Amino acid sequence: MDKQGGELRALRQVAHELQNEPAPELDWDRVEQALLERTAHAEPIRAQSRWRGIALVAAAAAVAIAGLGVLHHVRSSAPAPVAHVVYVYGPQVSGALDGHRLAVGDRVVTGAEAVRVEHAGRVTWTLAPHSSATLAVNGRYLTIRLDSGSLSAEVVPSQRLENFAVEVEQTRIAVHGTHFTVQKLGDSARVVLMRGVVAVGPASERGHTQGWLMTAPATGTFSLDGAGTGHVDEGNATAPAEPAPAAQPTSASAPAAPPVAKEPARAPAPASTESKSAAPLPASPPQAELDRGADRVASTVRSCFAQNTEFGAGVRTLATTALSIQVAPAGNITTLHFDPPLAPSVQRCSASVMSSVHFSPSLQGATAKRTLKLER
Amino acid sequence: LLTEVDELVTRCQGGDAAAFKELFRAHRSDVARLVHRMLGPTPDLEDVVQEVFLQVHRSIKDFRGQARFSTWLYRVTVNVVLMHRRSARSRPVFVDAPEGHVAPDARSLPDEQVARLTRIRAFQRLLGRLSDKKRTVFILHEIEGVPPAEISEIVGAPVLTVRTRLFYARRELAAMLREEPALAALANSLVETEPRETTRQPRKEAT
Questions:
Q1: Where are the alpha helices (DSSP H) in A309-357?
Q2: Which residues of B touch A75 (CB under 8 A)?
Q3: Looking at CA atoms only, how far is residue A268 from chain B in angstroms?
Q4: What predicted TM-score, i.e. pTM, was given to this entire model?
Q5: Mutate to test the interface with B, among A77, A144, A345 (most CBs of B within 10 A)
Q6: A193 and which of A216, A269, B103, B104 could share a cystine (Cβ 3.0–4.6 Å)?
Q7: What digits encode the pLDDT tens for the residues B171-191?
């Protein structure tokens, strides 16, 4: 047999081995409980006559905004397994849309009137007339992608970093507790910040956006490539009563005064979730919070170890490692260090927890340590 | 002929929460297995499975019975997984030590199990390098055993396209195999252990 035959046979064998590998056992009771809670609060959108009516109206209204190029997302009568609902609001539709009923990929498109979307306890965002936005990320890093036009958001103050974000192409505007407007222009995004602090940077840095730091009141204009270039005009924010309608690049939305160029503030992430008058930051996050966060990281590592470690009848796998968790002043985890190191697959799996655990902002950050005894 | 699943689906479409729970219990393992195979080891497994059933809950009214429910469910699962992969690509990833510099911590495992696990992880890395389309059809066909005609319904592409993707997926995987030492060793060992068939063939007598 030639070399290539060996590769194909190896391919078949390893595919067979993967076929025989059992899926990890999940805590099905917990999954079921969480699922049923979510379904109880979210009626099937298609089942509700009000939204069905809107969808029908949408078919006609969408024709009028065909320039936005969203028709391919409209549900047809053919089976469409994943919901990509297009809400097109006509003048007869009023009231707010419950953000919890949106799924990732759902798009909101406005007609002649603005529409308000509420994520209770977290954020209310208003999409300007003739604008389009898509729910890009649900859950911890709630993110709306502004496809065209303009939106403004009122974010409930929170200790969590990046409680809400708007992405415009490759540029991310991440906020905590604040009030701001984002407008997509031709090749830039304009941010008008009325209250609080936002960080503007590359969309790839979801969870720890760094780059430009804006403190209210301020107006900034950023390129759509991750805010590689931009201008911030501090003290020049004008709070519109409602978001500006979708504007052409040449609209009168430029800063009133000549913009002041600033170097991107790479090092500091937003230091506070409150406005400038907030209390001074503590030296490090509260110990109880550190303990809770470290426990959560440790729990994830245990789960990753269990999922990624082979076992056989009568065989136990034991490992002991010292876990060191470094927390940046902004509250995000910057490093997980294992001494001695665990298997790469376990470490890679464990790394995912870094973006989901956050601590209160502090002056110096902190380091939390745990000795883990792992068993499979 | 109405099957038990059809009845459950019909009840779900009518808003019967108990039926949805039954449907979840009946299919959760299949969904978890497919998600695990498509994503590899991940702590997001529970979340993704939950997201799949949320989508089922939201979209089940669109299910018209033109395909088998299991086919439709696979289609939902594949779409949710692909969406998850797309959003995960932009998440921060941190690996403490470079790949290959850390020996797997599996000292107490029998050698063959360690070798097998190492091969599987290496194979999953190769799968992760395939395009979404090729990886999906490869996993559905080669790992899940779904026939191309059904995959065609799941991914919404003609059967011929499915077969083409399968062909190229196999070819790319075979080409990449040597880049993973564990898989290269397996391929070498298979070449060495293969009996040389030409020596077994009886010689044809010259006429």
A1: 344-351
A2: 62
A3: 17
A4: 0.45
A5: A345
A6: A216
A7: 999 999 888 888 988 888 877
